[in-house]
Write a structure and sequence with these properties.
The chain is of the alpha+beta class. It has 3 helices and 5 strands, in the order H-E-H-H-E-E-E-E. Strands 1-5-4-3-2 form a 5-stranded mixed sheet. Helix 2 packs antiparallel against helix 3.
Length: about 110
Amino acid sequence: MPLSAALTAAVRLILAPHALQDLMRIEQTLWCERGPQAAPVFTFLLDGLQSLSAQPGVGRPVGDGLRELAIRRGRDHYLARYHYDAPRQRVLVLCLRGKAELICHCGEAH
């Protein structure tokens, strides 16, 4: 693979089942609380997750090979815990939490 292609190759983003459940719960909560005004917030959250494809090392290290990405917009704060598997060029998002949720209970599977 030419160097230019390697530099622009995106990392594959994968949501673990728990993270997918978290995302669905967050979406439901947003829609219940804000109705149609939830759409831009949820889109911003998805864009934040997608940014891991281009910059997988952007989150802060939290130990055990895991990282956390803070996704913030105004009063909305979310935290995505993930594992970056560089050899396989993939990011596995383990869980997502909103501002009110202080503890992230994530599985240890990578």
